[in-house]
Amino acid sequence: MDALTLLKSRNSAARLCAPGPDDNALAEIFASASRAPDHGRLRPWRFLLVRGDALSALGELFADAAQERDSSVNEADLLRCRQQPLRAPLILVVIACISEHPTVPRIEQQLSAGCAAYGALLAAEALGYAGIWRTGANAFDQIVHRGLDLESHEEISGFLYLGTRGGQSKPLPELAQTDFMKEWRQ
Ligand SMILES: Cc1cc2nc3c(=O)[nH]c(=O)nc-3n(C[C@H](O)[C@H](O)[C@H](O)COP(=O)(O)O)c2cc1C
């Protein structure tokens, strides 16, 4: 698929099944992510690869976090938390590693991490896989951060669920360029 077709047709997949990207595909995905625009070459992002049994362990972590957020959470909701990571053969946790910098503010480092996440999603799709970027309460939860060994200057930009598309692609939204761009002149 040529680059413009990929950029214009990328489409998230909520239903993902096996196989997920193998080690060769993951190497391409990380190489693509690492070309994110990056003011000052700070490389303000890193990835955690979660697959196999670790997906269930991540589900337990999500359940622990949900219980801590709301001690009255019911068993059905806890089960849903445990099963969330099992919705894909693998998950990439995208972590923004924020540092104090005289000319590169926090927002630029967060945006760079977002671009790295997008690069990973695009590469996965270019390789014939599919994915979806998710956050939700778990991305901002300190118990999840601790369980994943994040340091205090780190944030979760997203959980990239990756695998093989299950079912039909959803239709792409129709968006006129005039809805979101106009030419500026003085
Ligand atoms: C930072 C970020 C967080 C997101 N979090 C969620 C989420 O938690 N759950 C969800 O269903 N979609 C989430 N999305 C949206 C999906 O990734 C996706 O963009 C959306 O389903 C629209 O599909 P499309 O990307 O194919 O247009 C998030 C997107 C971004 C950029």
From TrEMBL:
Segments traversing the membrane: none
Keyword set, alphabetical order: Flavoprotein, FMN, NAD, NADP, Oxidoreductase
SUPFAM superfamilies: FMN-dependent nitroreductase-like (SSF55469)
Enzyme Commission number(s) from the entry: 1.-.-.-
Cofactors (names): FMN
Family annotation (InterPro entries): NAD(P)H_nitroreductase, Nitroreductase, Nitroreductase-like, YdjA-like
Positions of the Nitroreductase domain: 21-163
Keyword Flavoprotein (UniProt): yes
Pfam families assigned to the protein according to its UniProt record, in alphabetical order: Nitroreductase (PF00881)
Homology family: Belongs to the nitroreductase family.
Protein name listed in UniProt: Putative NAD(P)H nitroreductase
